Amino acid sequence: MRCQHTFQTLPGTVRGELMFHVVYGRQQGKVWIDDLSIRELPQPEQVPIQGRVFSNRDGEEIRAEWNGIQLDATIRGLSDRIAIEGVLRDTTGRDRCVQLTWRLPLSAKGWRWYTGLDSFQVIEAGRTYANGAVGVPWFVHLLDGISREGWSPEMKGYQRIRMLMYQKTCGDWGGIRWRLSDAEIERRLNTCLTYAWWPGIDGAPQETFDRKRPIFKRYIPLLRNLAQAGWEPVTHAVAKPERAVIERFGGEGGRRLFFTVRNPEQGPQDISVTVDARALGLPADRLRVFDALAGEEIGPVIRDVAGALSFSLKVPAQTTAVLRIE
């Protein structure tokens, strides 16, 4: 089945088509496509750093500085590789997330691109070569999204993937098996909240989809809110005890502010959270904290003169809480 819809952003501007392909296999039934929305993703700022290049007997030395970022590096051509070594400093003392990309023009036609220990392709002009494993992520900036087959409910490795993908879409193939109990499906959907990880589901009889759909309708709107706010690498928040996981979504540039707080332990925990509202440019004296899943306000909230607010919440074993601050 194919669903197709034509849209136009503004009169006289961009036109496009939105298309869904639904494959049923050997089954038949209904498909829900709910709450559809289209938005333009913000493009990350890409700034060529201008600097000076010095040649010495060891290779090329690069010194550059831009907007408080200082780079000192050397490039050496070796017999089997190009070695780039250096230091990237932030001279302002701020916490910033920076991706440094090297683009070196090479005449690589005829070289071997190894896809395994004993397999390779001969490089041809006009093609892009990249190894597609999640564990080999140097091409990740070329991707619009990533999906991983298999399920690791306790998030092993998921933080690293989210860090590499930043605010792009991350998901799973078939992590929600329809044969699982409702409680286990909800547990896995709850785990997805930690890093805004979109769940996949395998094939199921129509009546099973009908029965389990309310579980998804509880979590998908929250996942959408987190994804739209956008994951940020600098949390400006601390959760204790130390093994508790805290991640920030949004909060800058007018975006809604969310935190996900996960208890990875086998038993329930009282987790204390401190948020540096001043670092986020928010007025600590007027902020309120809500449990986005339960729809309840969290309190008491302690505010100090330094612009921080602190509060505690009880989180069940191996569960993620979503906090909305406004």
Helix count, per DSSP?
3
Mean pLDDT across all amino acids: 80
Quickly count the domains.
3
Number of strands: 20
Assign an overall shape. globular
SSE string, helices as H and strands as E = EEEEEEEEEHEHHEEEEEEEEEE
- Helix percent reads 10-25%
Structural class: mainly beta
Q: Quote the distance from N terminus to C terminus.
A: 42 Å
Structural features, described:
With 326 residues, the chain is mostly beta strands. The protein has three domains: 2-36 and 143-229, no CATH class; 109-136, no CATH class; 232-325, Immunoglobulin-like (Sandwich). 13% of the residues lie in helices and 34% in strands. The protein contains three helices and 20 strands. Strands 11-13-14-20-16-17 form a six-stranded antiparallel β-sheet, covered by helices on one side. The radius of gyration is 24 Å and the shape is globular. The mean pLDDT is 80.
Summarize the structure.
The protein is mostly beta strands and 326 residues long.
